[in-house]
Structures are given as structure tokens and as C-alpha cells.
Amino acid sequence: MTKIVPFLLLCWSFWTEAALEEVIKFHFGDIAVTSTAVVSTVTVPLSGPSWSDGAIHIIKPGQAGLYRLTEFVPFRYINITPMMPQVSDPITTSDGFELVSVDMPSQLSTDSNGTAMLPIGGVLRTRTTTGEGYFNTTYHIYLTITIEYE
Predict the structure, then answer these.
(1) Highest mean pLDDT, choosing among 24-38, 54-68, 123-137
(2) How many domains does the chain have?
(3) CB count, 10 Å around CB of 132?
(4) What would the DSSP string read from start to end of the chain?
(5) Domain residues for 75?
(6) What does the alpha-carbon distance between residue 31 and residue 105 come to, in Å, rounded to a whole number?
(7) Mind listing the pLDDT tens digit for each residue in 14-56?
């Protein structure tokens, strides 16, 4: 059994002075993939414990993330759209992972300071492409989100 650490990195861009600050890092924890014969998933919900199915076994549970959006106009709605699906960086001949769903609100409202809190959870799926299995390493997935506001 190999320990695997899938890790999520957020990518964003703003056309103004707005910023995104990480309050709690979103990650899928430490998992083990015991077979590439079946597609398997691990889920990190916005609240509650992580769970997995198929051949993914949780060694250390993941954590939903929390991000602070700042420097927006006060009392405005912000629309948020994740770019899906996203796949892990290739690691030589290893199989990879695919972020197939993101658990986050599609709209937030800024407060009197132009700040809003963005919680993020999600579902990660095995992506058997090489049949070589998974290495004992950290896999990175970059999530791009679009933030629109008036």
C-alpha cells in the first residue's frame, strides 16, 4: 500500500486590487490507492468528515478550505465559477488524479469592508491512464476559479 498526498493549489486572477487570502488550506489528506482496476474517489465536504470509496483508503483525513476575498466593493454580490475538471500534474509514469467536483457557493455577498469568505471542498477521482499505479509522493492539482463582480 502506497501513501499518496493529493494537494490542491488555487489559482486566481483579479483585474483590480482585490486579493484572496488563505485562512485554511484545502487538501485531500493522506490516502492510499490499493488498486487501479476501479475508479475510486475521496470526498472532502464543506462540513463533516472526509470519505472515500473503491480502492482509496484514507490515512489522514482531508480538510475543506476557507479563503478570504478582500478589497472588493462593499455590499456587492460576487459570482464564483470553478474551471472543471482539473487534473494533477504528471509525475513521470504514474497515474494521476482528477478534481471532478468542487463544493463551494456560486455567489457570495461582500460585507461593509468589501470582504467575503469562500469555503471550498471537493471530490477527487483516480485517473488511471498509464496502468503504472501511484507513487508515494505529493500530487498537485491547480484549481482555477473565475470571480465576477460589478
Answers:
(1) 54-68
(2) 1
(3) 13
(4) --EEEEEEEEE---SSS-EEEEEE--B--EEEE--SSS--EEEE-SSS--EE-TTEEEEE--B-EEEEEESPPTT-EEEEEE---EEPPP-TT--EEEEEEEE--SEEE--TTS-EEEEEEEEEEEE-SSSS---SSEEEEEEEEEEEE-
(5) 3-149
(6) 26
(7) 556 788 899 999 999 999 988 888 889 999 999 999 999 999 9
